[in-house]
Amino acid sequence: MECLQYSIILIVMSDKNINIRELTKAEDQIMQVLWQLKKAFVKDVIEKLPSPKPAYNTVSTIIRILEKKGFVSFKAYGKTHEYFPIINKDEYSNYYLNRFMGRYFKGSFQDLVSFFAKENNMNITEMEEMIKRIEKDLNKSD
């Protein structure tokens, strides 16, 4: 029953994210930084990226693409822009998980969990702990 409730919550939440599009690897990397920092200038994003550091223009271009996709907005200070996410990490994670479930598990949360448990050799105790955590998370949202 808990899994069914969780699936319903995921589906309901996904309806509000219809306009979200999947991020490329580079876009995702930059969004991870923006979600972490909450707001940042291009140079701040570059500082947080792993080496080798991409060029300033590359990061700036990707951020402008993210802006066009509706993931980020900015506050202008003259010619300089401070960017901030307008789609939060949980919203995107929910969208991405639902797309993933749809592609690989016919939209079935139960099939996803079963596959994950089998592939990771989870035992009953670990499964029970996971169910308790899901119940706790569901109770928080009530």
UniProtKB/TrEMBL annotation:
Signal sequence, renumbered to the chain: none
Keywords, in A-Z order: DNA-binding, Transcription, Transcription regulation
Source species taxonomy: unclassified sequences, metagenomes, ecological metagenomes
Any one GO biological process: negative regulation of DNA-templated transcription
Record organism: hydrothermal vent metagenome
GO molecular function: DNA binding
Cross-referenced SUPFAM superfamilies: Winged helix' DNA-binding domain
UniProt entry tagged with the keyword Heme: no
Family (UniProt): Belongs to the BlaI transcriptional regulatory family.
UniProt xrefs under Pfam families: Penicillinase_R (PF03965)
Designated name of the protein: Transcriptional regulator, MecI family
Keyword field contains Amino-acid biosynthesis: no
InterPro entries: BlaI_family (IPR005650), WH-like_DNA-bd_sf (IPR036388), WH_DNA-bd_sf (IPR036390)
